[in-house]
């Protein structure tokens, strides 16, 4: 166990915000984590891939980086493969492991930045598929009681970018491993227009899961900035849900508005469109900005402070509220 002092967190958050942690350590197993916790450095801040956090201040306590590794097939039944992965593994590595072995179900979620441990935390999703569709179970360490607990799919209470680990059990558990249930027979999800268009461009008629992953990678690369080149944390805001009635009256005023019907008389609005209409797309103030190809993504051009990005997000929230009467919620965690 090695505990470092006064460490810059810049390499450990995809926004590339330069704040310091008083102490920093990596853990590679539950036992290893318990050893570190026994040192009593106060309430730790846990980091996975650092792709969903905006640091607005230094961390006076200890930052613990999840590096629990390993991806392996642990079983199968008539229709499924069960793949277990360490919480510290890169999510995209898990996707490629499944694609290479022809285990179906995660191909639409290729190239999402972040770690396996974070994937159920906020029920990551893209192009019509979410973690909850392939999640089997996870093992998490309860920090207060120092015991490992298993969670099934229903235990996690998955919602849109939500799980029990972001609500009731916030900051109480650390996810050590996740087991996914992949299909032997692929049911491809190509409903998303951009995927269809990309497959046509690739001249693929009968797509394999590898083709889908390749199409998704191309789409993401064209719209979403590579955090290694331009700091960002993916979508900064959630797509807001409104009542169908509200949507209908908004549509009268703003005929171009984009919404997707949901069960329960609700419509999910495309926040990127709302933000773009308020004139923010491509906006830059100092090193904080709104991405030119996807207004839902805020970016750090180099040396932005977390507070600069936060301030920009507040201005965006205010202007969307003023123009459309819709309240945007952040998807990214602010520290
Ligand atoms: N749009 C605009 N202007 C913009 C951005 C988007 O008009 O600047 C329009 C697009 O033309 C499209 C609609 O809004 O008609 C939706 O855009 P897009 O397909 O890019 O998806 P999104 O709703 O903006 C969500 C997820 C992404 C995920 C994509 C694809 C959320 C908050 N975001 O974005 O997830 O990759 O769908 O499934 O749900 C993330 O969570 O970090 C993330 C990147």
How would you characterize this protein structure?
- The chain is of the alpha+beta class and 335 residues long.
- It has three domains: 4-66, Uridine Diphospho-n-acetylenolpyruvylglucosamine Reductase, domain 2, CATH 3.30.43; 71-183, Uridine Diphospho-n-acetylenolpyruvylglucosamine Reductase, domain 3 (2-Layer Sandwich); 231-334, Alpha-Beta Complex (Uridine Diphospho-n-acetylenolpyruvylglucosamine Reductase, domain 1).
- The protein contains eight helices and 20 strands.
- The strands form six sheets. The chain has a five-stranded antiparallel sheet with strand order 6-7-12-10-11. Strands 1-2-5-3 form a four-stranded mixed sheet.
- The chain starts with a strand and ends with a strand.
- Bound molecules: uridine-diphosphate-2(N-acetylglucosaminyl) butyric acid (EPU).
- Uridine-diphosphate-2(N-acetylglucosaminyl) butyric acid is lined by residues 126-127, 223, 234-235, 238-239, 258, 270, 272-273, 276, 281, 294-296, 331.
């Amino acid at each position: 166990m090695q505990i470092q002092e006064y460490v810059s967190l810049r390499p450990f958050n995809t926004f590339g915000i330069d704040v310091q942690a008083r102490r920093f350590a990596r853990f590679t197993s539950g036992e290893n984590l318990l050893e570190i916790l026994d040192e009593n450095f106060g309430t730790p801040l846990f980091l996975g891939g650092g792709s969903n956090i905006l640091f607005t201040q230094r961390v006076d306590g200890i930052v613990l980086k999840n590096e629990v590794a390993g991806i392996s097939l642990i079983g199968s039944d008539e229709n499924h493969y069960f793949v277990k992965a360490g919480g510290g593994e890169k999510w995209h590595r898990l996707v490629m492991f499944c694609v290479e072995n022809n285990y179906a179900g995660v191909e639409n979620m290729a190239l999402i930045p972040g770690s396996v441990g974070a994937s159920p935390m906020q029920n990551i999703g893209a192009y019509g598929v979410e973690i909850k569709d392939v999640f089997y179970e996870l093992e998490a360490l309860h920090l207060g009681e120092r015991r490992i607990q298993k969670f099934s799919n229903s235990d996690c209470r998955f919602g849109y970018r939500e799980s029990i680990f972001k609500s009731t059990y916030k900051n109480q558990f650390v996810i050590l491993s996740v087991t996914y249930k992949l299909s032997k027979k692929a049911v491809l999800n190509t409903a998303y227009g951009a995927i269809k268009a990309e497959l046509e461009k690739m001249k693929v008629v009968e797509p394999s899961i590898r083709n889908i992953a390749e199409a998704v990678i191309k789409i993401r690369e064209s719209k979403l900035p590579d955090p290694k080149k331009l700091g960002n944390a993916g979508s900064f805001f959630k797509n807001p849900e409104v009542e169908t009635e509200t949507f209908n009256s908004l549509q009268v005023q703003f005929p171009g508005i984009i919404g997707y019907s949901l069960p329960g008389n609700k419509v999910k609005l495309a926040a990127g469109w709302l933000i773009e209409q308020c004139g923010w797309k491509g906006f830059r103030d100092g090193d904080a900005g709104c991405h030119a190809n996807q207004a839902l993504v805020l970016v750090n051009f180099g040396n932005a402070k977390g507070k600069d990005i936060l301030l920009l997000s507040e201005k965006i929230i205010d202007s969307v509220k003023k123009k459309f009467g819709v309240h945007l919620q952040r998807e990214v965690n602010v520290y």
